[in-house]
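Homework help board

Subject: predicted structure for assignment chain

Our instructor gave us this sequence and asked us to write out the predicted structure in token form, then describe one feature. I got the tokens but I'm not sure how to describe them. Can anyone check?
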Amino acid sequence: MEEMTNNELVIHGYVLRSVDYQENDAIVTVLYKSGIISFKAKGIKKLTSKNRSSCLLYAESEFVLEKSKNNNYILIKGNLISSNFNLYSSIENMTCLGLIGGAILTFLDENFSSEIYENFSLLIKGINNNFDVFTLTCINLTKIVIETGYGLNTSCCIRCQKKDKIVAINFFDGGFVCLRCLNKNEDVEDTIYLKSIRYVFMVTQKDYFHYVLERKICIRIIKELMKYIQTEFGYNKLNFYDIFLTLY
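My token output:
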């Protein structure tokens, strides 16, 4: 839901970040259907704050915001829909959620396709239902890469456009490579790895929960995608990715 009346904006979304501001306030950043929005939440660090629970990390909430004279938003009221506390149950969940949230905040503009919000909702839903978090992270990260405009061609060879004998992928050249076009410095890849990459690029939202990828392949794809997108954007550091590398 998104509704603007006078100077008030009503949004429904997920909290991706909360940064302490002054003694009892915070700057809260929310992912919602139209993009990302940040607002000042006064007094939410107080235990007695009525809005405290709605602004917790990864909470799904409805927010009523007021636009100030300097065009910044201030929280008027937060209505908690789901705290999603079970997301905190494992280091894997928190690391993967942090990686996806960080990638959205780092690589995407404030306004983007509603599919990013919908994908994140499916990520939350999947984790809550104990679906494989690494498969979901692969899919979400891939869709973020596509949204940036740096998507890869996984339907045919990037050099001859033929669909048979696909044996490798070159991220920086733009996608799959067939045996005929393979360069000396490119390695022939495992078939399951290539099929997994094609799957995460091609899968639609209705099929998110139909297939679980091998964990070691997921981890490799995540690392390759992060190396690729960080290089393209010139970013050398993303906090949760550093944690991911330490763990996996």
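Reply (TA_rk): Your tokens look well-formed. For the description, you could write something like this. Strands lie at 2-5, 8-21, 25-32, 35-41, 60-67, 73-82, 166-170, 175-178. That's the kind of observation they're looking for.
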